[in-house]
Design brief:
globular, mainly alpha, single chain
Length: 181
């Protein structure tokens, strides 16, 4: 969720997108009980635009980490507010979500620094971020690009916006899903 423009990695992705799709993104979504084709594609596009599947520490010394370039305030808000000890009105689904996220952490409790190397945790936290959005995940590529820009990137005027998402999708994801997702 960085606000500066991304550049494609010079040497290509460290994690091949087709590997990220099956062993990281689909796996994390399944473990959370939140798998859907739309969620998979949205996380693939998010990873493509945020890290190029290769930059797991923000360029220029910024604070964002992981395949999804999550920043510390977002990570801690998700843990402390969204995944905190469930309140009376929260469902068993919410409790199961926290249990699943904790199970992905190497030490049992997720830590921000772990996002750099624990890609399953990073994918889970990105999905939890999207889980907090009340609007459903769009089914079209253009809709998902806008959804990312509004809800994940925060409509940053300094970011690359929807065109950057679509360019990253075409570079990394279109070979897997096709140009329209």
């Amino acid at each position: 969720m960085t606000s500066h423009a991304k550049h494609h990695a010079k040497s290509g992705p460290v994690i091949k997108p087709e590997v990220a799709r099956t062993t990281i993104i689909a796996e994390a979504l399944n473990r959370l009980g939140l798998y859907s084709p739309q969620a998979e594609r949205l996380l693939m596009g998010t990873a493509a635009v945020e890290s190029n599947f290769s930059e797991f520490v923000q360029r220029g010394g910024g604070p964002a980490r992981g395949m999804f370039q999550m920043e510390p305030p977002t990570f801690h808000d998700l843990l402390d507010r969204v995944l905190a000890a469930p309140k009376r009105h929260e469902s068993e689904k919410h409790q199961a979500l926290r249990t699943a996220v904790d199970a992905l952490a190497t030490g049992g409790t997720p830590s921000f620094s772990e996002l750099t190397t624990n890609h399953l945790l990073a994918a889970a936290m990105a999905r939890v971020k999207y889980y907090t959005i009340h609007a459903p995940i769009p089914t079209t590529l253009a809709g998902q690009a806008n959804y990312w820009w509004v809800y994940y990137n925060g409509k940053s005027p300094h970011g690359i916006g929807v065109p950057g998402y679509l360019a990253a999708w075409n570079s990394y994801c279109a070979p897997i899903y096709g140009p329209g997702g």
